[in-house]
Design a protein that fits this description.
seven-stranded mixed beta sheet
Length: 273
């Protein structure tokens, strides 16, 4: 496994915190822990570019410290910070060391490792929230950038019978496979991939990544949508909506719904027939 770095980022303007998080995510950082005064940002040592970080520092005027995180310490780090996530009476996301959570329709148990997407971040929370209104029964699903596999797991629990989940990160693939096994999933296929196979067609597509990756892949995402397919996008800030909408229109996609949480948005699209 790759060696990781932990950056402690402080002294930034609180009203710019969400924009700073988005900028870090677009700069290869894989996990962000938020508090009132600091951000803990994690990145593979091989992906770290201090000049790029200096550019962000010039824009957002923060201080930072760097330390190396050995692989064997990561689970303990996550476990010490991981609390269950409850999305109303619909879904509870917990670790194996938490007690069972009653009075929810679906319970997902994950091992909190380095993969991004434990449900704590607003974008994952909104994706789960928006999935509630969709019909997954006997549907085919594509989870683009699966991370921990939470969205793919939920899709199966909601009735999907064919799910392809891809990610370009080996750690995410390992973690997603472990989590699907823990949740006794039978219909999820997980693949390490950098590109979308445009030979496939799906009823529902889930993409919780970031603006740049989404816009770069909109053509491919549109091409794999069945006639009445739904595309659910997040990893986007409110300021990204217009740019995404413009890019989507080039490929015959139109917006049908939007959710917003803490300056982040989740957008739902369909394809013009």
């Amino acid at each position: 496994m790759s060696q990781y770095l932990q950056l402690t980022i402080s002294s930034f303007e609180q009203n710019q915190q969400e924009i700073l998080i988005a900028a870090l995510m677009e700069s290869e950082f894989e996990g962000i822990e938020e508090s009132e005064t600091v951000l803990l940002a994690y990145i593979k040592e091989n992906d770290f570019d201090e000049m790029k970080l200096k550019g962000l520092q010039n824009s957002f005027h923060f201080d930072y410290k760097i330390k190396s995180i050995p692989d064997q310490n990561w689970n303990a780090l996550w476990e010490s910070n991981f609390d269950p996530v409850i999305v109303s009476d619909f879904v509870a996301i917990r670790a194996h060391f938490h007690k069972r959570i009653a009075d929810v329709k679906h319970e997902i148990v994950i091992t909190p490792k380095m993969s991004f997407g434990t449900g704590h971040h607003a974008t994952t929370f909104m994706m789960v929230q928006q999935m509630r209104s969709l019909d997954f029964q006997n549907k085919s699903v594509f989870d683009f950038g699966t991370g921990t596999g939470i969205l793919a797991i939920l899709a199966e629990k909601m009735g999907a019978t064919s799910i392809l989940a891809i990610d370009n990160d080996a750690w995410s693939i390992e973690n997603a496979m472990e989590n699907t096994k823990t949740n006794l999933c039978k219909y999820i296929k997980i693949e390490k991939a950098d590109k979308i196979n445009e030979d496939n067609r799906f009823d529902i597509i889930l993409a919780n990544i970031n603006k740049n990756v989404i816009i770069d892949n909109l053509k491919a995402l549109a091409s794999i949508m069945k006639a009445d397919a739904i595309l659910l996008l997040s990893g986007l800030l409110t300021a990204d909506e217009h740019e995404v909408k413009q890019a989507a229109s080039k490929f015959g996609l139109y917006q049908t719904n939007k959710a917003e949480r803490n300056n982040w948005i989740c957008l739902q699209y369909q394809r013009e027939n």
